[in-house]
Amino acid sequence: MKRRDFLKNSVFASGVVLIPSFLKGMQFINPEKLSGYRNVIVIQLSGGNDGLSTIVPYQDDSYLKHRPNIGLNDNLFRLSDELYLNSQCRELKELYDNGEMTVINSVGYPNPNRSHFRSTDIWHTGSASDQFLKNGWLGSYLDANCESSYQGIQFDSELSLILKGKNLNGISVTDPQQLFNTTREPFFKNIAEQLDNKMLTEDNQGYLYKTLVDTYSSAEYIYEHFKTYESSSAFPNNKFGKSLKGISQLISSGLKTRVYYTTLGGFDTHVNQLNSHNTLMKSYSEGIGALVEELKKSDRFKDTLILTFSEFGRRVKENGSKGTDHGAANNLFIIGGGLKKPGLYNGKPDLENLDDNGDIRYEIDFRNIYATVLENWLQADARMVLGKEFEKLSFV
Questions:
Q1: How far is 207 from 188, CA to CA, in rounded Å?
Q2: At the N or C end, where does the chain have fewer CB atoms within 10 A?
Q3: For 164, which DSSP code?
Q4: Beta-carbon neighbour count of residue 175 at 10 Å?
């Protein structure tokens, strides 16, 4: 049985965590051992965000020609003579005007895959389209640079591939207090007392035990920091907003987590795209605005880099249902208090030179962006994490 299937079918998958008795006297890792305090928040717009309705080239004649019904041309925020921002993204426009946001257009990879699952795996692992890797790029970062699972946190009910390393996984949490209480459940005391170091083997059972140990040892550390700081900014009252609020509390509390990951779903807009996409962009923009506001209050924004991507863009031409189908290259956002090149990193996408599927061709490999974040922001060895050398960009 594969480890992924084994974990899903285990007691751990249902939120039940064994408490190993030998850990009762365990000392937590001294966070001062870490080099620096910078962190990265990775956000995925799941489902394939329509980049052309986010960063809008409406002055390009080809844009409205391809999108007579869903093309945007009213009440947009001007970024340049060629590109405009969706009207629902007021908070993003403020960040852009303040020099705290970089927009990178036409990001993708060779031979793009248009399956949600496969393309997400490619983005999560940093692989080529014909590679099938088992570890995420943030998980590989944890393996090479970190000592504890709590240094990579996902706000969700299940850990994604992006935070799974070979030797060290991140922690998935929706409520730090609930995670703490679950790991202290006395019902499993008799079973847990049978666990010792000899059981932390390389087989499936040993892998499960190691996962339980990592979760147990991280839960108290996360919760003790989480409860020391209460965010006061107005986050959207939805799952995404709650995730960003939780992240802001952990960062502002002084938790030495290095990488965070969360998602905003609903972007698979094949039908009647206009209203649903505008609603999603409003939620994204408001959430980011509240997150940045909170991080500025605690003076942690200067130490934070926010990277937002989607697994692919949408087809340039609208479909017959006033929506868009799966595409390829897309725009990507970098938000932070220490950007070296804010604004538009490159020019607008070429809507005349489309690929054979009618999709935008990529100009910048997404792994160049990962390598830049790793080397220039986290001071990590990008080659060790990504498996090969990639050109670094100049946004940080």
A1: 19
A2: N
A3: B
A4: 14
Query: Which two tokens mark 251?
Result: 């960062």
Cβ-in-10-Å burial (0-12, 13-18, 19+) of 343 comes to middle
What gap in Å lies between CA 54 and CA 49, rounded to an integer?
8
Q: How many CA atoms lie within 13 A of 182 on its CB side?
A: 19
H helical segments located in 41-110: 61-66, 90-97
The residue with tokens 């538009």 is 344
pLDDT in tens, 153-173: 999 989 999 999 998 999 999
CB burial class (10 A; 0-12, 13-18, 19+) of residue 326? buried
Give mean pLDDT, residues 186-204: 49
Residue type, 194: Q
* Cα 338 to Cα 303: distance, rounded to the nearest angstrom: 8
Domains of the chain: 39-174+237-386 (3.40.720)
Per-residue model confidence as pLDDT tens digits over 119-138: 999 999 999 999 999 999 99
* 10 pLDDT more than 60: no
- Within 10 angstroms of residue 129's Cβ, the number of other Cβ atoms is 13
Q: Tokens 């945007």 appear where?
A: 72
DSSP 27: P
Q: Is 329 helix (H, G, I), strand (E, B) or coil?
A: coil
| Residue bearing tokens 């009618």 | 358
- Percentage of residues in the chain having pLDDT higher than 90: 73
pLDDT of 215 above 60: yes
Give the residue among 224, 178, 221, 197 at the shortest CA–CA distance from 21.
197
Q: How far apart are CA 212 and CA 227, in angstroms?
A: 23
